Amino acid sequence: MKTYILPIFYAVLIAISLIGHVYAQKAWVGRTTGGLPYIEYSGGMVRLGADKMGFIDTDVRVVVLDSVENRYKIRLSKNWEAYIPKHFVIRGGQLSDSVTSADVLSGTWHLSAKDNYDVLTISLPDRLPYRSYQVVEPNKIIVDVFGATSNTTWITQLKKARIVKSVYREQLEKDVYRIHIDLEGKQNWGYSINYDNTSLRISVKHAPAKKGIKNLFIAIDPGHGGNAKGAVSPNGTEEKIYNLKFAKELQTLLHKKGVKNVYLTRTEDIDIATTDRVLKLREVKPDLLISLHLNASSRTEVKGVSTYYHHNGSRGVSKYILDEMLDLGLNEFGLIGNFNFLLNSPTEYPNSLVEIAFLSNPEDEQRILNEKFHKQTADKIYKGIVKWLKEVQ
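That's the N-acetylmuramoyl-L-alanine amidase sequence above. Prediction below.
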């Protein structure tokens, strides 16, 4: 009979060593920081980054489980994990802050109105991570707070609220607290989520007081600029130059049609970081954002127009603009949802990215170079917005 005592002994030592290594990598508590911190669903990576779960406020507590290249893997709740870029996290607490978070109980709710917003405030003992998403039919906002358990025994709802019909809570999991916000009308006009001390505050924007495009505050984002040239055609046509031409043509048309409030994220050939554009848009608070870009492909035969949105509340305006653009005889490249572009990610206002045509396609490029096409594009985007407004107002 052979003796296996020695190999078994070494196997046990290796197993103990591996277990020790796992436990040596202890979780730690961090706090979010930076201008626009966001969390992601997975560790995957594509051209525009991993699928964003959404922006979150600063000083939000996150439990860091692991380091994965330039991101941290974090625990949101018992059954939920996510990822966050490392530069958005600083160390800020001990494990005694509670990794399981089972003792984080929700408090009172208060719904009122201030300025042009209905404001729902929910009392919590700490700043916890959250995500939100939009439902179109029926029109509502859903917010999940991770690591919280319901201890809410009353919800105060004042008659001042204009766009929020009702609010209620659901304990989705033991430590996932869901907030339901039912809205009036067909259109979600935007909302923001942040913390006031440790109370979660959800500010839901009222619909424009007056109907029609003349009463909208429209922002236009000409993509790229400066050193960020964007796509460049084989003939040397630079996307950044023509994005601005299309934007100014749209601005001119909107003014002619009586739209007084139009804002451009850039008015000259300068490079403005996408993060800075989003932060500025948060300040100016438009009713609608239209981003303008030109597409490109490694295959020169690919051509056409496409519109992009991230949140469901922006699907309608994107669809109407695409329908109008197709009347110009452009090929249909598609209506693209859940798009991960940073300018599509804010929830504060409906927004749409228009990829007007392909610079890499000779036929599309000739259109792009034609000033008549600039005017036609502006007209079609304008008509798309008008048709969308007739549907939702």
